[in-house]
Amino acid sequence: MELKKLWKKFARSPLNIISLIIFIFIILVSLFPGLFATYDPMEMDVEYFMEGPAASHIFGTDQFGRDIYSRIVYGIQKSMMIASLSIVFAAFFGTLFGVISGYFGGIVDMIIMRVIDAMFAFPTLILALFIIALFGASVSNLILAIGVVYIPIFARTIRGSAITLKELLYVKAAKSLGKTSFSIIMKEIIPNLSSVLIVSFTTNFSTAILSEASLGFLGLGVPPPEPTLGGMVGEGSPFLLSAPWVTLFPGMIIAIIVLSINIIGDGLRDTLDPKISK
Amino acid sequence: MKIAYILGRLLSALPTLLILTFFVFISLHLVPGDVVDIMLGTQNYLSEEQVQDLYKEYGLDQPLIVQYVNWLKKIITFDLGTSLRTGDSVSRIISEKFPVTFELALISLIFSLIIGIPFGMISAVKRNKLPDYTFRVLGLIGLSAPAFWIGAIFIVIISSLFPDYLLFGYVPFSQDPLSNIQVMLIPAITLGLMIAAQVMRMSRNSMLDVLSQDYVKVAKAKGLKNKKVIFKHALRNALVPVVTTAGIQFGYLIGGTILIEKMFALPGMGRHLLQAVTQRDYPVVQGIVTFIGVMIVILNILVDILYSFIDPRIELK
To answer: What is the DSSP letter of B32?
Structure first.
């Protein structure tokens, strides 16, 4: 019942529906890239070398004669995997720190928040780059780097909500019934954070995709020859004027993915935020 | 009152700065191997004694906390060590490269305010009408498109339409101001688009907030013209949060300059940081990252203090 109402509200905007369809399609592509790719993403075709879009290679080929469309398909898989795992990582630790900070307050809160403040002092890209610089570029280090960078963002949001929640009557009632802090946090606080978490998860997921693409563009993402969307833009940019398709198509796909997630995020916020509902 | 607030704000930044510098310091010790190992690289012809001397020279034989305090003492005097590759002092590298990055970020910020504020205000005033929808969709695209992709599109379009336009080849402002602005303009716009979109969203929300306030309703009820209400009463108040948040954005623009400086081959601090990362030139990486972190903390304090002058309700909690 409740869900049905929320869906109706979300579906009121056609833009939300279109974005959702695009996003579901992107998830399908990243789950089953083999179904969508027309070539092996690593296969080099010496006869088709930096060729523009044509019937055989719809997005053209790159400087090694590899099919750009198929590389994009596998690139989507890598980007989606790295971004989603990083955000799960960030959401887990961010919620942990945020809830502890907000619920207990006092000195614990102060220490956690000062550390969070210090992390906030770095632009996300600089911090991620710094972590990659220390540990080197690999898929797991990328997930760690982007994940760490997004912890403070989650922690701050969750802390704010936790502070509000702990003052509510039913939480106070649970406390006076002698329930332990752990059980109050697990049973009363965390379940009520779900709408805040869903919204931050979506909005940060889109920026995480951008972060991963930016690192790839800088040459600090998944090492070549694995295809990644940002990496393709970075590797193609020296040939930008002679073969613009090598750069422009993967960049366009990044923009489409991020745009669809942003629209869904906005839609979810409007749907779940009781203040905006009319 | 005000002095107490300013002092309090400055004091509250101290632990942040300490944690930040400690974080940068300690993280370099997490690297497999240490600075000496990296410096030596494949040259293993040094005797054990010479290696020990190197450790002493870098103070690596002392306890970690002593090393940290010594390093702190140095960075307070802006001594950030020397590059492992070129032997140049890191502070000199920063003072040479930062002006390029600063100029890029400054032009971007100005651009984003010029575009973002009017669009956001129009969007708010024409809420749920065509201009609002158009600007909001444009804003979403601005927030979603990666800066390096926008930059690539600009390069392709401009070089085919205006082959004579100076897109690459940085010229210092002091040498040729006109060429300098020409070279910086497109990179700055590319970098500024995302911030412009954020400023636009913020201006829209802020203006909607103000428009729903009682004093605006009273002004309207008193029979004042809509235009007058918007420009005389609402606009000024709506701008306060926008301008101050833009100050904070400036720090984050510095992060984005890495992408843009690489794309447009500008000799700024971001590109140098990237180069240092790929060369594993740790003192340079450490120095630039510390510089950026400390700069942003100080910038945020300045913005807060500025804000407290604009909005007298703000006090230290």
So the answer is: S
CA distance B17 to B65: 16
Residue A25, pLDDT score: 95
Confidence at residue B16, expressed as pLDDT on a 0 to 100 scale: 86
Flag whether residue B251 sits within 8 Å of chain A, measured between CB atoms: yes
Nearest to B278 among A219, A247, A262 (CB): A219
Top-confidence residue, B283 or A26: A26
Q: Which residues contact B111 (CB under 8 A, 6 or more apart)?
A: B188, B189, B192, B196
Q: Residue B152 and residue A129: Cβ atoms within 8 Å? A: no
Residues of A in contact with B273 (CB under 8 A): 126, 129
Mutate to test the interface with B, among A218, A256, A266 (most CBs of B within 10 A): A218
- The nearest alpha carbon in chain A to B133 belongs to A15
Q: How many CB atoms lie within 10 A of CB B78?
A: 14
Q: What is the C-alpha separation between A178 and A188, in angstroms, rounded?
A: 14
**Percent of chain A at pLDDT above 70?**
97
The CA distance from A74 to the nearest CA of chain B, in Å, is 19
Residues 6+ apart with CB under 8 A from A173: none
Q: Which residue bears the tokens 């669009």?
A: B119
- Name the more confident of A136 and B288: B288
pLDDT at A151 over 90: yes
Structure tokens at A29: 């592509």
Write the residue in A118, A123, A262 that is nearest to B140 by C-beta.
Answer: A262
User: Which residues are CB-contacts of B86 (< 8 A; sequence separation ≥ 6)?
Assistant: none
Determine the distance from the C-alpha atom of residue A276 to the mean position of all C-alpha atoms in its chain, rounded to a whole number.
Answer: 25
Crossing angle, helix A244-272 and helix B147-161, to 10 degrees? 130
Q: If you measure CA to CA, which chain A residue comes closest to B140?
A: A259
Residue A201 CA to its chain's centroid (Å): 8
| pLDDT (tens digit per residue) in B41-70 | 655 666 777 777 777 766 667 778 888 888
Half-sphere exposure of A32 (CA within 13 A, CB side): 5
Residue B142: both structure tokens together: 């601005």
Low-confidence ranges of chain B (pLDDT < 50): 317
**What phi, psi does A152 have (nearest 5°)?**
-60, -35
pLDDT value, residue B43? 59
Chain A interface includes B23 (CB < 8 A): yes
Q: Could you read off the pLDDT of A60-90 as tens digits, one per residue?
A: 888 887 888 889 999 999 999 999 999 999 9
